[in-house]
Amino acid sequence: MSPDTSPILRVAGVSKTYAETVAVKPLSFALPAGSVTGLLGGNGAGKTTTIGMVMGLIEPTTGTIEIFGREFLKDRYHALGRMNFESPYVDMPHRLTVRQNLTVFGRLYGVRGVADKIEELAGDLALKEFLDRPSGRLSAGQKTRVALAKALINEPELLLLDEPTASLDPDTADWVRAHLEDYRRRRNCAILLASHNMAEVERLCDRVMMLKEGSLVDDGSPAELLARYGRGNLEDVFLDVARGRGNGAAA
Amino acid sequence: MSASLEFSLARVGAMTLRYSYLLRSSMPRMLEMMYWPTVQMLTWGFLQTYLLRAPGGLAGADKTTIAAGSLIGAVLLWDILLRGQQGFSFSFLEEMWSRNIANLFMSPLRPAEFVVSMMAMSLIRLLVGMVPVTILAIWFFGFNLWALGFAFAAFFAILIFFAWSVGLFVSGLLLRYGLGAESLVWSLMFVIQPLGCVYYPVAVLPSWLQPICWALPPTYVFEGLRGVLVDHALRLDLMIYGLALDAALFAVASFAFVRLLAAARRAGTLLQTGE
């Protein structure tokens, strides 16, 4: 019997318009299990809006989103227990300790043996020394690790990451990326990653979608994009796309 | 059954646990929950004492009504209404202040479970804030709210359901319009105070205003309270009307909450829960 190759996430013709402003023009893509797809673009390119629509927090103006084979907007609770997300724009209650926050989210996601799971995550993500500290008293790097623990507490099959290493020092950012790579390998999880950190996208993603002013302007593996634009790194490709020059699909 | 209609007590428990962690983490907040009801009770209690003792003061029916404890009884019930709504809304505001709304609405938590957990917290906050005040009222003024028995249970039910309806509606506005709508949490219920006839009978209001008063469930409670204290009889008809109005208003508030949540998803405000 051949393995199930149907995508975990399928986005078809999804767009978002706020009054007169078009935030995302019709966009289609699919994420197979075990893949990491990057949404790359400058400020206002539509990355966060796209992730927000896949999270179910923003209703698309047009199009459909299918997650785990079912239409998400009509049956979101079929999928929500099997996915999770991390974003620096969303926080956790500051006065609760890390352990209390993770306990609440573990219970919301129906995790069996929450206390053991928290200990496991604390070991994996080096949280043990501040598990009983209020979340509001953590450094930016510690907060990011806690947010990652919350995102992984239900062992999601679909993980949505919006700028997961924003405002982190290079060492912590590298550490977070390594952990995400490891998690993807172990769980065969599909990851949708919005970022404007080129090194991060180049390292983690096997497919990159370049967004500009709400439109998909190019799409391919990092190697394909580098070859297409004749560049040595994604940062130069990004600048070519942002400034409308080069040999890519939008040129 | 559709997954969206499933209801999990475990998830309600998780949210209640979250709020109880918060409550236990701050002794000043616990004390504040008792502080304002105590100040209110003492102020109105001493005013009641003064009105009864002042030479050339009240006479006749007014004196009978005040002497029966209508002022202090009314202020205690008013605080149940006000603190019940604020206890509900405060839990919701905590999520907005901590930028946690997106985490919750992207989790398997259903809106109905979220609402039930806020109701539970509203009751817990009332328990912490009001029980000591009702005991102080016995000690200071000899007024025992608990001695009203079944009448108190009926008054409480009508007031708390109305408090939750207002809390639910305001929470919907917060979702849609963000923290810009926060002042409604603290101020909206005060519109009810003059129209709900907390301290005086409906009959003293202009006739054109009276139908508006009777459209509000708290009016039935405060009229009922005066009936119990003065005439020693619970008007069951008032209680039934009050509860029926409550049911209708709770249905309207639930509908408004669902519509405002949908509008928030369309406007993208669930990801931007600041001001």
UniProtKB/TrEMBL annotation, chain A:
Q: Which UniProt keywords apply?
A: ATP-binding, Nodulation, Nucleotide-binding, Transport
The record's annotation in InterPro entries points to: AAA+_ATPase (IPR003593), ABC_transporter-like_ATP-bd (IPR003439), ABC_transporter-like_CS (IPR017871), ABC_transporter_ATP-binding (IPR050763), P-loop_NTPase (IPR027417)
Q: Which PROSITE patterns match?
A: ABC_TRANSPORTER_1, ABC_TRANSPORTER_2
* Record-annotated ABC transporter domain positions: 9-238
* Record bears the keyword Nucleotide-binding: yes
| Pfam families, A to Z | ABC_tran
Single annotated GO MF? ATP binding
UniProt record similarity statement:
Belongs to the ABC transporter superfamily.
Q: Can you say what this protein is called?
A: ABC transporter
Lineage of producing organism: Bacteria, Pseudomonadati, Pseudomonadota, Alphaproteobacteria, Hyphomicrobiales
UniProtKB/TrEMBL annotation, chain B:
Q: Which Pfam families match?
A: ABC2_membrane
* MF GO annotations: ABC-type transporter activity
Keywords per UniProt: Cell membrane, Membrane, Transmembrane, Transmembrane helix, Transport
> Which top-rank group of organisms is this from?
Bacteria
Q: Which InterPro entries match?
A: ABC-2_transporter, ABC2_TM, ABC2_TM_bact-type
Q: Does the keyword Transferase apply?
A: no
Where found?
Answer: Cell inner membrane; Membrane
GO annotations of cellular component type: plasma membrane
Give a yes or no for keyword Zinc in this entry. Answer: no
Q: Which PROSITE patterns match?
A: ABC_TM2
Q: Where is the ABC transmembrane type-2 domain?
A: 28-260
Residue ranges of the TM segments: 114-141, 147-175, 184-202, 238-262
Query: How does the entry describe its membrane topology?
Result: Multi-pass membrane protein
Q: Which family does it belong to?
A: Belongs to the ABC-2 integral membrane protein family.
Task: Write down what this protein is called.
Answer: Transport permease protein
Species whose genome carries this gene: Methylosinus sporium
Which taxonomic lineage is given here? Bacteria, Pseudomonadati, Pseudomonadota, Alphaproteobacteria, Hyphomicrobiales
